[in-house]
Amino acid sequence: MKVYVISDVHSDHKENMEWVEAHCAATSRQSDVLIVAGDVSDDLTTLRKTLQLLSSSYGYCFFCLGNHELWTRKAERNQYDSIEKLHRIQDLCTELGVFTSPKKVPLPSSNASSQNQDVAQGVWIVPIWSWYHADWDQEPDIPGALPIERVMMDFHACTWTSEPTLDTSNNSIARYFDALNDPLFGQILEEINKDRSRESEDALNDDRILLPKNNGEVKEEEEKRKPGRSQPAVISFSHFLPLQDLLPEKRMLHYPNLAKASGSTYLANRVLSLKPHVHIFGHTHFTQDQVINRIRFVQWPLGYPRDQMRRRDGGRGWEPLVVWDSELDGGGDAAKECILVGLL
Description:
The protein is an alpha/beta fold. The protein has 11 helices and 10 strands. The strands form 2 sheets. A 6-stranded mixed beta sheet has the order 4-5-6-7-9-8.
């Protein structure tokens, strides 16, 4: 079983919908997982079609909404605001069998073996609800930079009338979305930590394998468990950024104040408490793959057509990225698998 990731599909663009249709027509990965990290479309009909296509091509499809999904156009505003639209999107995902809550995905029975029992327990996929807030940005401002309210459509297209306490000038929207993770997040974290605790106890009863350094010396702190004794992989995802280290410095950005509408410290606290092997995100359309605090952070956006044209060969042959593969090294260490797959 493989876990594929993609973000920022933006299938309201004709070229991107054509990519989705072509990809799904050529893809049947019924044993695999696809993570879609937000910004598919603000149009509910387009969102439905896109998620329907993607979920029919993969055994499990996970989705978290981005900022674009909550735009409310003029025709929508006499029917619902962004909060009601959120609930409609949740209902749509439930109808389509698209997962928006944490789930431990089991491996297909053909992958389960006595030598690979721990990996056969499956892989945790953990969507994390989030929204950005301006004081996530801790970098000094650049004088003369355009205010973020003039750059981001969200400040005009998102409406919060059903929740009068929500205000774009403070952290209230970010707090509201973070609270949507509870109480389920705490329950899942407890289950994951139990898995980790069981694995640690099992490991103490096993012989250890010490891996030699290049000079032939052995360091006890670098000992690793035998293959087949590994913790189940944990992969979390969000649309927004948990850490400002994942955003280029302001002097490198066309819109330096993008940092004021990109990330959340509430999200960072969730990710750091979860300690996933990989965290997937989107939003900024920068292809990224880096390790911070022993967590691999990946952004793999389809992006706008203009973004794709900047890629090699104009983006031809672009595919969702594999971040975990149960077959790698015979199902060895999940953390190692998550870090290596996609970098090779």
